[in-house]
């Protein structure tokens, strides 16, 4: 029988699964507590759970299906994990420390089909989607790592900004949210969770219709179609005239602020002209917009791009600000390790190819 990750089950699903197999309902609550409050890493450590129930769980589920391949620690406290999945695929997860808490950046797919021309994750085509359990397990693994350091630290924030396009793995992403949001479990509040999409307009409509308060970020990167298509192939399928109405629908439906991500590429999309175009594009939704300017993190394979100069970054920022657009420049985390999403994985795969 094929085992799956125990973390893929919501509390209701775990209860149903156990009761269908003759276990009492309170067992499910005990198991849930061992998983998410006491956070054991082996079913046999669930001391007040009967052996029959433990045997059932062991037979059907993994409690640790990810294997730590590489752990890189940065001087600023950022920790980057390269995990090996059961099928041998590699994924990345990053823990970042901020003054407001500990944030984990999770991966949703093995590779990415969107193929943005600046991104290390898109270098390798999508091999498969991650299951909801595999996404939850990334957080559990990081939390276990923190637990083992004995400092009583808790993961408090989640950004779905690792490898992959989360809206291309929509239902597993939603399962993941349900598990980590559970108040008797990790209890990570929806307002502390942000999901980033490259702009799959049809899924933005679906997301707007969900009754949840998770934050949405949209990777815009350019204020006009010509430039956006050059930087992100997905703009052919979802050009601005499809993307912007989806965003307007989301704003109207939820009244929640959207973050627009804008990666600054030297002499490509960082001129004053583009800043003015961007301000115009967002002018009618200024009150619900925040632009996050991201200094490009160089990727070896994308040597056509360079990071914008400090001067260009400041000018871009000030042009937006002058036009009433809320914005900020992303502060880099872990720049002394392979920080940009997908870099550690693509380097490891290259290394494996050389050594095999
Ligand atoms: N696929 C989703 C989420 C993952 S990418 C999306 O594209 O939104 C998350 C963010 O990482 C994106 O905004 C992207 O712009 C940023 N990113 C990717 N490669 C980068 C690089 N080389 N330097 C800086 N940011 C990068
Ligand atoms: Fe995929 Fe996001 Fe990278 Fe684009 S930026 S290739 S959508 S992971």
UniProtKB/TrEMBL annotation:
The active site is at 92 (proton acceptor), 341 (s-methylcysteine intermediate). It is an enzyme of class 2 (transferase). It is found in: Cytoplasm. Its cofactor is [4Fe-4S] cluster. Keywords: 4Fe-4S, Cytoplasm, Disulfide bond, Iron, Iron-sulfur, Metal-binding, Methyltransferase, rRNA processing, S-adenosyl-L-methionine, Transferase, tRNA processing. It comes from the Bacteria. Its main location: cytoplasm. One of its GO terms (cellular component) is cytoplasm. S-adenosyl-L-methionine binds at residues 164-165, 196, 219-221, 297. Binds 1 [4Fe-4S] cluster. The cluster is coordinated with 3 cysteines and an exchangeable S-adenosyl-L-methionine. This is Probable dual-specificity RNA methyltransferase RlmN. The gene is rlmN.
